[in-house]
Structure formats: C-alpha cells, structure tokens
Amino acid sequence: MPAQLVPFVLFVIVVTLAPGPDTALGLRNSIRGGTTGMWWTGLGCCAGLLVHAALSVAGLSALLAASAVAYTALKLGGAAYLVWLGVTTLWKSVRDRKLPPALPPEEDPLPAAALTRRAAFQQGLVSNLLNPKIILLFLTLLPQFISPGEPRALTSTILVLAFLGVALVYWRLASWLVGGLRGLLRRQQVRLALERITGTVMIGLGLRVAFESG
After folding, report:
1. Residue 179 counted as domain residue
2. pTM score of the predicted model
C-alpha cells in the first residue's frame, strides 16, 4: 500500500470537485438525459482517465507534453470541441423555445429519449481525451506521491485506481443528485435556461483553454 495514499486521495477529491470541462459537459447532458445522461458522461470521462493513465505509465504522455506542436494541437482540438458543444447547446435552446409548452413530467418522454447512453459516453470520453491538462496532471501528480523505495509501476497503478475510484463516486453521486432534481429539470423554462447557461459556460471554457498559456 502506498505510504501517501491518503494524502493523494484527499488531493484528488479537491481536484475532482473543482469545476471544469467534464463537469460542464455532465451538466449539459443531464438536461436532456437526466441521471442516465450524466452517469454515462461520467463513465466516458473515467474511461478517458484510464487512457491518460496508461499513456502516462508508458511514457507516451511525457513525449506529447514535451512537444509544443503536439500539445498545442491537442489543446486547440479540445477547445474547438468544447466551443462546438456549447454552440450546439445554445442552438438547441433557441430551437426548443419555439416548441409548444412541455407536457407534464409523467407524460413527457423527451428528456429520457433525447440523449443515448452511447452518445453521452462518447462525449465524455472525447472531452477528457482532448484535455491536455489531464496529461500534465498525471505526469506531475503521480511522482509526488511515490515515496522513495516504493515500486514505481505498482504504486502508480494503485494511485491511478484510487483516482478512478474517486471519479466514479463523484459521478455516481452527482448523477443521483440530478435525478433528485428531475422534475425541476424537465420543466421547459428551467431546461431552456440551463441549456443557455451550460452552453455559454462551455464556450467560455473552450476559449479559455484555447488562449491560456502552458
């Protein structure tokens, strides 16, 4: 067992709770997919974490981080993806505003059918994979919690699994919270307002990613 496992988990909890592109995407997908939409978005993000972790252990992430061209290309790709998701969300809110008032929640099938599990998972996966900050996080975070004398590969694996465990718990709890607000989220005016907010936030995050240095 890694000697610094507890401090690592506490640090990861803080990092996980900090709002970012993945959280914004999860909230966006919860509007049309409810608990299921947010949960499968989170599973996609967690799958992305596994890919980043595998690349980090293999040393490929270090090569990518060292290449300014590759890093910039990844950063701009992630920024463009976020902006595209934000723009499509805003466009849907404009389009849906012209629809007749929604049916009562028990008669309205739209939110449950508007986003498939596969689509939510793929969006979460792509969003996480195109986030260059995750690469740097694994490269700089893991070594700091490996004590001298500990087997590097085994300790890194345990820390990655702990990171993944925290992420899964976060997404499960967040999706349940969304489920508790299901009735409120299915009201047309509330849904439209949240779509506008999340769409604007995602565009803002995309622009920040594109123009920030490092």
Report:
1. yes
2. 0.72
